[in-house]
Structures are given as C-alpha cells and as structure tokens.
Design a protein that fits this description.
Blueprint lengths: L2 H15 L4 H14 L2 H33 L3 H20 L13 H12 L2 H31 L4 H29 L1 H25 L3 H27 L6 H25 L4 H25 L1
Helix pairs in contact: 1-6, 2-3, 2-10, 3-7, 3-9, 6-9, 6-10, 6-11, 7-8, 7-9, 8-9, 8-11, 10-11
Length: 301
C-alpha cells in the first residue's frame, strides 16, 4: 500500500472509530446551548468548532511526535491523561449546566423527541446544511493525503504541517463570523459562508481538471475552509437555539447527521473519480451547492 493510501486509510478508520468520543462532541454543544443564546451562542460555538477542527488538524503532528520519541503506545497514554485532566477541569469550573428535574430513562420518549426534531424545519434545514458542509470537510481530510503525497510529492511531515495550517484558517473564519453577524445578521452571514464554500469547491474542481498544481489547489482549499469555518458554528447555533429544553437531543441528532454526512462524503470522494483531486473537487461542489440550495428554503419559509 502506498504512503498516501495508508494515510487515507488511517483517516477513514479515524472517522469510523470517532463514535467512541462522540459524547464529548454532543455535550460540548449542549452545554453551550445551556449557558448561552443568540449571538453569544454563535460566538461560543465558534470556539467549540475550532477546537474540534484542531483535532484532525494537529493530531498527525502530535501523534507522529509521540510515536517518534516514545513509541506508538504513548498515544493512548496521552489521550488517557488528557481526558482525566479535562474531566477534572470540567467538574471544578462548570459542573452541571442543565438545571431541570431529572426524567426517568424513557426510550419511547427519546424516539418521539428525535422524530419531532426531524420534522421541524427550524432544526432540519440548518442541521442538514451544516452536515453537508462538514461531510465535504471530512471528504477533504480523507482525500488530502493521496492528493498531497501521491500527486504533489509531499512528505508525511509536510502533510502534517498542512493539516495544522488548516486549523489556522478555520480559526480565522470563526473570528470573522463573530464579527460580521452583528452587522449582517445570522442568515446573511451563513449565506456568505455558503457562497465562499461553493467558490472554493469550484476552484478545487477547476484546478484539478485543468491545472493540477499545488498553489491553485491550495487557494481553492483555503476559500472552502474559510466558508466552512463560518457556516459550521453559525449554522450549529441556528440549529440549537430554538431547542433550549431539548439541547441534548438536538445536539445528539445534529452530531448523528454530521457523522452520517461525513461517512457519505468520504465514501463518495473515494469512488466518484479515479483521480483523488478530481473526486475531492466534485464532492466539494456537490455538497456546497446542495447546502446552499437547501438553506434558501429556510429563508423563503
């Protein structure tokens, strides 16, 4: 198996096993919804999403360094220590944030809650929009090792640095999103992010078909990440805001949709074209256009 394929396979296995840590992802959004509303919620979710983006961005560098200096088993020790410290910090700083009477475990009520959310356009449209965009993002993470290592001649270390650089773009996009929401409003800010996502996807596909060099490809990736970094926190905030009394269920269902879209995006990018860069471009274009068209239904509603 070639180096790029090994990295791509590792990314796919990471996605499949990510459900083991899904509770923290769900709870982080639910806790933010418990504590904040409106523009403050969007601002807080921006930093939550940046932290989530940092995981796939920095993990190749951190994992590679741990493996090099301490062996591959050290990664498991690092995760265990980090989780213990994070849990202790949470209990000392936050504690319980959902101050309502505890309800007994009731599977029919849980199913009813999920069905209710799945038929509420206030949830469905922004949740599906952000899920499509994140599906394209995971497709990018899966395809980039093959594109950069096999097609463009990157070394594994350069690939790790590239992934780390993507975190800076997402962070910058989140900061921009929090600045423009007071001026443009939430709907227009999300639409701007979707426009950037579409433009970035189009650039990646065009460069894949007619150019194939790194710098034009990088430009398209950066534009897409900028749009994604705006849509992700803002659309997530819009999805959760109307459901304060069901923040946990809404966050869990949103996470499920996002992981489902991620699995579909990764699979589609692998089979839609023989060339990895072209396949990635097609997935970015399709997901961005579908997300933009879907979000217009909310604005017309």
């Amino acid at each position: 198996m070639r180096v790029g394929e090994r990295f791509a396979d590792a990314a796919n296995r990471s996605l499949r096993t990510g459900r083991r840590g899904s509770a923290t992802s769900v709870l982080s959004r639910a806790i933010a919804r418990d504590l904040f509303e409106g523009e403050k919620l969007a601002r807080v979710l921006t930093f939550v999403m940046v932290a989530m983006a940092a995981a796939p961005g920095f993990s190749p560098l951190v994992g590679g360094a741990l493996d090099h200096f301490f062996g591959w088993r050290s990664a498991f020790a690092f995760v265990a220590i980090f989780a213990a410290v994070a849990a202790m910090a949470y209990f000392l700083v936050f504690g319980e944030t959902h101050h309502v009477p505890r309800a007994a475990f009731d599977p029919p009520a849980i199913v009813k809650s999920y069905l209710s959310l799945s038929t509420d356009r206030r949830f469905v449209i922004p949740a599906a929009t952000v899920s499509l965009i994140l599906g394209a993002l995971f497709a990018m993470f899966s395809a980039l090792p093959r594109v950069l290592i096999e097609d463009l001649g990157f070394t594994p270390m350069q690939l790790g640095l590239f992934f780390a650089g993507t975190v800076m773009i997402v962070f910058s996009a989140g900061i921009i999103a929090t600045k423009i929401v007071p001026r443009l409003g939430l709907d227009r800010s999300i639409c701007l992010g979707l426009v950037l996502s579409c433009a970035g996807g189009d650039m990646v596909l065009l460069f894949a078909l007619f150019d194939g060099r790194f710098r034009p490809f990088l430009a398209g990736v950066c534009v897409f990440l900028l749009g994604m970094g705006m849509v992700n926190p803002l659309c997530s905030a819009q999805t959760l805001s109307p459901f304060g009394n069901r923040a946990g269920a809404a966050s869990a269902l949103l996470g499920f949709w996002q992981m489902l879209a991620a699995a579909l995006g990764v699979s589609l990018a692998a089979v839609i074209a023989k060339d990895a860069m072209t396949g990635l471009g097609l997935v970015l274009v399709l997901a961005s256009i579908l997300a933009s068209a879907l979000y217009q239904l909310r604005r017309k509603g």
